[in-house]
Amino acid sequence: RPQLHSEIFSNIYKYGLGVQDALDHRRFIWHLWTSSVDMEDGFQTASLKGLDINVVPYPSRLGVAGAVEILMNGIRVGYCDIRGEGIPIGLI
Q1: Which of the chain's termini has less CB crowding within 10 Å, N or C?
Q2: Whole-model pTM?
Q3: How many structural domains are present in the chain?
Q4: C-alpha–C-alpha distance, residues 36 and 59, integer Å
Q5: C-alpha distances in Å from residue 83, one per residue of 17, 25, 40, 48, 50
Q6: How many whole angstroms separate alpha carbon 63 and alpha carbon 46?
Q7: Given CA atoms 39, 41, 44, 48 in this order, what sign does their dihedral have?
Q8: Residue 43 covered by a domain
């Protein structure tokens, strides 16, 4: 899901969130070629006039992601999305 990846990247690089916070942040999905948007509760929607907004409870199943961060010292840190049932496990 490119849209999900761009949301997570934006949360990290534009808004300065840590990897875990970026994964856990509320999400939205815009259905291409329509005016329909699914978004987790917590977003301000008053300025989104003209869109068909479907608010879903947070956390929802609007995409599930995981990430690995490689620190400057070479240590790898695994992260799991609150929306899934994952667990980061290190393999050597």
Answers
A1: C
A2: 0.84
A3: 1
A4: 19
A5: 18, 10, 12, 25, 29
A6: 24
A7: positive
A8: yes
